[in-house]
Amino acid sequence: MAPVLGRAPCARQAVAERFGGADVGRRGARPLPGVASYAACNSAIEGLGRALAIDLAPRRVNTVSPGTIDSPLWRGRPAAAREAAYAGFAAISTLGRVGTVEEVADAVVFLMGNGFMSGTTLFADGGYTLR
Description:
Blueprint: H1 8-18, H2 26-29, H3 36-55, E1 63-66, E2 69-70, H4 72-75, H5 79-92, E3 99-100, H6 101-113, E4 121-124
Parallel strand pairs: 1-4, 2-3
Helix pairs in contact: 1-6
């Protein structure tokens, strides 16, 4: 288990509260036109994760790259903007829908439980990076 987040139920709570609407790395893996600086920042996060995995070994460091997630962050935006964003993401992901906070939390819990993964980015993005 990772010492920062604690046990699995705590990880799910932390991810839900802290990263519920995050769009962390997928734009770095598959950038869209007009978002070069955003893609660079997201790619840097993945690179930092890999470098920390080396520097902090044998401690494990991984990153999670969520797609668009139905979360309190998005629910706080105007309904029309939110629904347009959801539809746009659904159209360019292989699963054809946005993700849930629970699905991202499951990805984090998986990485915490797998003691042989380090320096990895796990794309919980509904197949966005494949298209």
